[in-house]
Amino acid sequence: MTGESVITIEQLSFTYATGTRPALHDISLDIKRGEYIGVMGLNGAGKTTLGLSLNGIVPQSSLGHYEGKVTVDGHDAAVTPVREMAKMVGIVFDNPEFQMSQISAAEEVALGLENLGVPTEEMHTRVSAALALVGLAGFEERSPLGLSGGQQQRLAIASVIAMQPRILFMDEPTSNLDPIGKEEVFELARKLNKDEGLTVIVAEHEAEVLAAYADRIVVLHEGLIVMAGTPQEIFARADELAAIGVRVPQATELALAMEPEAREGVPVTTATAIEWMEARAR
Ligand SMILES: Nc1ncnc2c1ncn2[C@@H]1O[C@H](COP(=O)(O)OP(=O)(O)OP(=O)(O)O)[C@@H](O)[C@H]1O
Ligand SMILES: [Mg+2]
Q1: How far apart are CA 144 and CA 147, in angstroms?
Q2: Ligand 1 atom at minimal distance to the Cα of residue 49
Q3: What is the pTM of this model?
Q4: Which ligand 1 atom sits nearest the alpha carbon of residue 50?
Q5: N or C: which end of the chain has fewer CB within 10 A?
Q6: CA 42 distance to own-chain centroid
C-alpha cells in the first residue's frame, strides 16, 4: 500500500521493569494512513504492549527499558504527553463493562472530553455525534450497565471516538462478546476505517475476522515481528503459524487439507474458498 505514513516504529524494544525478557524486541513497522492492520500472536506475544506504545502509555506510564522510536503523526510517542497522544490514538480494550463507570451513556462519553477541557457546548455536540456514529443515537440517558455487550463495546468506542483520534487501536475488542456483539463491533470498525478514514489496528485471535477486514496482518511471537503481509500471504503459511500457536481461517485450513502445496491464491474467506474449490472441481 502506498501513501502517507501515519505511524513509524523504528527498532522498538521494551522490557517491563519486572519482565524477564523483552515484551517487544526490535520492532520496525510503517503504517499508512487509512490502513486496517491486524495483529496476531499467542498470549504474551506483545500485542497489548505494542498498542500501548502507540499512545505513549509505554513507556510513559509503564516502568521499564525502552529503546527505539515510535512516531505518530510526526509526534514522538515516548515524550509527547499521553493526554496529547490520546487525541491522536484511541485505545479500546477487551472488556467494555470494566471500562464503564458513569451513570448515563452520554456521561460515559463526556468523561474523556471533560478531562481534555473541551467546552460544554462543544462537548454536547461531540457526545451526540459519537453516539450516532456508533449506532447509539437516542441512548444518551440510558445506563451503560443495562446495554448488551456489543452496545457497551460500541459505547466504549464512542468514548474514544469523541476525542477525534485518527487512529484506533482495538485490543481484542470482542473477546468477551457473543457472536452478535462481535459482528456489531467489527462492522463498526469497518465503517470507521472505510467511511471515516480512520487507521484501524486490531489485536485479534480470530483469523476469519482479519481475513475479511485487514489490509495487512502482523504476527508477533515473543516480542518479535515474525511475519507481516496481506492475509493471503500470512495465512498461506499455515504450518509456520501453527508452530507459534496462531490459527488460520477455516477456509484456508480446508483448502490446504485438499491441496497442501497451495500457496499462491490460497483462499482466506468462505466466499473465495467456494470459488477456489469450484475451479478445482471443473
Ligand atoms: N504490566 C506488565 N508488567 C510486567 N510484564 C508485563 C506487563 N504487561 C505485559 N507484560 C509481559 O510482557 C509480555 C508481552 O505481554 P503483552 O500483554 O503485550 O502480550 P499480549 O500479546 O497482549 O498477550 P495477551 O494475548 O495475553 O493479551 C509478556 O511476557 C507479559 O508477561
Ligand atoms: Mg493483550
Answers
A1: 5
A2: 18
A3: 0.95
A4: 18
A5: C
A6: 15
